[in-house]
Structure formats: C-alpha cells, structure tokens
Design a protein that fits this description.
This protein is α+β, with helices and mostly antiparallel strands. Among the domains are: 44 residues, no CATH class; 95 residues, no CATH class; 156 residues, no CATH class. 42% of the residues lie in helices and 22% in strands.
Length: 569
C-alpha cells in the first residue's frame, strides 16, 4: 500500500498506558520518510470536546469603539508621559498623568462625577489596556492627584501638548479664533475657598448661580483648542482679552515660527482702545467686528454701493470697503450685507412685533374695561402699567418701533395710547438688518479674505457648544469647590475637546464628514464581547473575543482612525 507522505495524518501513541493523539506530517528527506511537523491533540475525550462546540458559560460586553479611539489619540499626543514629566510622582499606584488620562477619556465618552468614574471605567476595555484597577479610581485618589497640578504646571503642560499637536498633525495656524464664555456651577454662595465662580451675566440664563468663565484660543483648522484660561465669572470679555494679550502672543510664538502671518479673529465684545493698542504692539494681525449702532454713518451707506462677493463661497453676501478711525487708528473696514441674515432677522422681528401688538392691544382693552365698569378688588395703577409696558418693550429694537404713553385718566385709572412706528421699521431694514461691520489691520487682504476670516469665528463657537453638550464632552456639572480643582477640571475638559477635535479632523481628511456627536455615537455603538467557556478546575478560563457587528460607515471610521478591525482580549 502506498501512502501520501505530504498529507497530515492522525497518529495514536500509548504513553504510560494511555492513548494520546497527534496530527503530523511526513515528507521524504534524502529518500527516507521523516516527520517534519507534529501537533499534539490530546486524549480521545479532549478530541471529542474539540469536535463538539462547548456551551458558553457567560459573556461580558464592554465599551470599545469610542474609548479605544479616544485613547489612541491621547497616546498619539503622549499625554501621560508628558504630564508625568512636569508633575513627577514617587511611590506606587497610578501616576498623575494616568489619572488625568482617565478623566479625559471619561469626559470624551460618558461624563461622570469622580465618584462614578470607577464604575464606568470597569465597563470598558480600559482596565486591560491601561493596567489600572477600578478600585484605584476613587474620588479621593482623583482629588489627591489633582492637588499636584498648579496653574503654572497646567500652562507648561498645555503649551507642550499644543506644540506637539501642531507638529504631529500639521495644523494650519494662519487663522486663530479667540472667544470667551461662562458656565454655571453649583458652588455654594457662601463658599469662601472659590473666588473664580462669581455671579454675573450668564450666557445660559442662569444668573442665580455662580459662574466660571473660560476663554479659548482655537485653530480654524480642525477647531483644535491651543490655549485655555479660566477666569472669574463676573469679568467682561474685553477685560479678559486685555489680560491675555501677552499670553496669546507668547503662545503663538511657541507654536509657530511664522508668527507674523497669524491672524487673530475675535468678536466685538473684546473691543477696547487698550486691547487694540496691545495688538498693535504684537506681531499678530487681527480681524474683528464693530458694534453697529456705534457707527450710524457706516450703516447709512446705500446698498447700491455694495458689490457681490464670490457667489459660490459666499452666496448672497455683498460688501463695501472703506477706511475708518477705530479707537484713534485708521483701519480697513468692510461693511457686509447678507440677504439670508436679513430675511432671518426680519422674520424674527416681525414675530416679536406681532407679539407686542397683541399684548399692547390686550392691555389697552383691559384698562378700558376698568374705566367702563370698575370692578372690586385691586385696581390697575399708573406705575404698574408703566412697568408692564417697560417689560414688554425690553427686547432689542422694540422701544424704537413702538411709541407708548401711559397717563392718569378719570378716577385715577391709567390710560394707554400706543402706536407702531412704520418709518422706524423701514429705516431699521434699510440700515441695520443684515449688516455686519468688520475691521482689520490686514489692508493687504481683499474683501473676500476678510469676510471669510471673520466667518471662521464659528469654529470657536462650535467648541463652546461641544463643551456644553450634555451627552459628550460636557464641562458641567463641576463638582469641585476650590479654584485649584476648578482649574484642573477646566484643563482636562479642554484636553478632551482637543482629543475629539483631532479625531474629527482625521476623519474629515479621510473624506468622512461627521459632527463630533455623530462620530462618537457611531463609535460608541461598537462594543467588545468576551465569551467565557467552562474549564476544568485549576485551568485558565477559555475565552473568545470579538466586536459587535458594524456597518460600512463604522468600518471606514475605524480604518481612518487606524483602529484594529478585531479587538484584543
């Protein structure tokens, strides 16, 4: 009988009275058969177990896609080692960098308080990847490590991380955006340890709470934060800008050798003579906006003198260019008219006008009923009527559009006379609505470049919206009660913003255009499933790891972020 020596064969061997099976392959070597490969298979019982699929004992489902993507970006930024280099720590346990990394990842994926982070962490793939136990992530441990970070250390770390991001990802720094906002906190009114949270004008309508201000410098390329600064919540934007002019210039010098070609974009809330004088002394260029009502001569320029900008890039936008003295210095001024903005403003004001007409008509009718047939009880007073009218006309432009007179009538009851000023309404449409006043020191730029630079301001506004998103990356609630811890909280929230912004930018460069929220939703849907199988006592548990099904878009996202298509246990 002839045997094919190139095919694997099953061979039984008796060892100490027991039979064990091997799979082996023989080949002829120098004309003689020789075993060239052999694999031990085990006993007949073990072979049977291999042939009959075992029933799983249990399965573990862990968060994978979002946390692994954010972790990968944090590793590219070298966050842990960089933080630990500036804030070294002796002894055992996680380093300061590792604690801040976990805090950053949590902010990126599922913002929790420090007391809840350990439970969240344990439901992700992070324990296997970071080597930290959930029991090490107590709120007290977090606070102890946060105490090691003071404001100068945060500034040094952020500068180095920003420089690394610019160098590694080739961020375009020619246009940088500056703006500030505030976040409401739940810091107790009588807490003397925190001076940053103060009552002021809340941009979210929560003036009854203490506010924490946050200023950001963001790149137009990718909306990546490059500088942040927490400040007292009752401080105005112009004061904040003034205090940061030197720091902005210094950061730009650190990030780019071509600092003379950087243009800083900011809105009208940052305008002041001192701020513009400071910019004049810096190597930075700027594009800003003016308060329209402070420049009636510019608003009065006829639209017939405007010229249309590129209809492809700026459809429906017209511009008029001139020069004007702004805070004593002659600047290039571009007055823009946006038809789409005009229509939206007219529609909004018409709605508000209609509401006031109805409210004033109802108030007039109510007063007339009291005159015709006085009723028992409290009577309307002149002061109360005037206060009511004042509240009705408090919204912008309403006092210019309505003329209202409240005066005493028969029996001391107030009378109301009002009218709508149609002439003022027409003038408002012809002068202010749809217009924006821009000014700049970039006389070398054309109108298109100036308008597009100012429009890039939406990038920093988008960054603030992300920090206020309740689902991803939310800045609040801030469960910290001292200025130092509030600064650290702001720091890792901004680091989380940088991570997600760079991820989104990486996807965009791969042709995948998604919002941060959509990107994280798609990634969060990809989970890791670990199936555990029963084993004999004393043996290491057998497991099988795979990812939940993902569609073509999710696969493209994984590939663009250079994530492995199959998970590691």
């Amino acid at each position: 009988m002839l045997y094919d020596l190139t095919m694997p064969s099953l061979t039984a061997k008796r060892i100490k009275g027991k039979i064990y099976y091997y799979l082996r392959e023989c080949q002829r070597v120098d004309g003689k058969p020789k075993i060239v490969w052999q694999q031990y298979l085990g006993s007949a019982q073990q072979l049977l177990q291999r042939m009959v699929p075992p029933q799983p004992q249990s399965a573990l489902v862990r968060d994978y896609g979002a946390v692994v993507a954010a972790l990968g970006m944090a590793q590219q930024l070298d966050l842990v080692s960089l933080i630990d280099r500036h804030v070294p720590k002796q002894g055992q346990g996680p380093t300061v960098g590792q604690y801040l990394l976990v805090a950053c990842l949590n902010r990126c994926v599922a913002p929790r308080s420090k007391a809840q982070i350990a439970a969240w962490y344990d439901r992700t793939v992070l324990p296997a990847r970071l080597g930290l136990k959930a029991s090490q992530l107590t709120s007290q441990r977090f606070w102890d490590n946060m105490d090691r970070l003071d404001a100068p250390a945060i500034a040094r770390i952020e500068q180095e991380i920003s420089a690394g991001a610019v160098a590694r990802f080739g961020l375009d720094l020619r246009c940088l955006l500056f703006d500030a906002t505030n976040f409401f906190t739940f810091v107790d009114s009588f807490n003397p340890r925190a001076t940053l949270p103060q009552r002021g004008h809340s941009k979210e309508g929560r003036a009854n709470l203490r506010l924490l201000g946050l200023a950001l410098l963001v790149s137009a390329d990718g909306e990546v934060p490059l500088l942040h600064h927490p400040y007292a919540g009752n401080q105005s934007d112009s004061v904040t800008f003034a205090s940061l002019t030197d720091l902005l210039t210094q950061r730009c010098r650190q990030l780019s050798q071509q600092v003379t070609d950087i243009t800083l974009v900011f809105d009208k809330g940052n305008n002041s003579r001192a701020n513009l004088a400071a910019l004049e002394q810096s190597p930075l260029h700027f594009v800003g906006s003016l308060v329209p009502t402070q420049h009636p001569d510019l608003l009065a320029i006829s639209r017939r003198r405007f010229h249309a900008l590129d209809p492809q890039r700026l459809p429906g936008v017209w511009a008029y260019r001139t020069t004007e003295k702004i805070f004593g210095v002659t600047r290039t001024v571009v007055v823009t008219y946006n038809e789409k903005l005009f229509q939206a403003q007219v529609k909004t004001l018409e709605r508000e006008i209609t509401k006031r007409r109805q409210a004033l008509a109802e108030l007039t009718a109510s007063l007339q009923r009291h005159h015709r047939q006085p009723s028992p009880g409290l009577k309307p007073t002149l002061e109360g009527t005037q206060n009511h009218v004042q509240a009705l006309l408090a919204a912008r432009h309403m006092k210019d559009l309505f003329t209202v007179h409240a005066q005493p009538g028969p029996g001391g009851l107030p009378q109301l006379d009002w009218s709508f000023n149609s002439k003022a309404w027409r003038q408002l449409q012809q002068t202010l609505l749809g217009k924006t006043l821009l000014f700049t020191d970039r006389a070398d730029w054309n109108d298109q470049q100036i308008v597009e630079a100012y429009r890039s301001q939406f990038h920093v506004e988008a960054a603030f919206r992300r920090l206020k998103d309740p689902h991803w990356l939310t800045f609040r609630p801030t469960f910290h009660w001292t200025d130092q811890k509030l600064r650290v909280h702001a720091f890792y929230c901004v680091l989380a913003l940088m991570i997600l912004s760079l991820m989104r930018r990486q996807l965009a460069r791969a042709g995948i255009s998604l919002s941060v929220a959509r990107m994280m939703e798609r990634l969060a849907d990809i989970r890791q499933v670990v199936t555990l199988y029963p084993t004999s006592k004393g043996q290491r548990p057998r497991s099988h790891t795979l990812l939940t099904d993902y569609d073509a878009e999710q696969k493209a996202i994984l590939e663009a972020l250079q994530l492995p298509p199959s998970p590691t246990p």
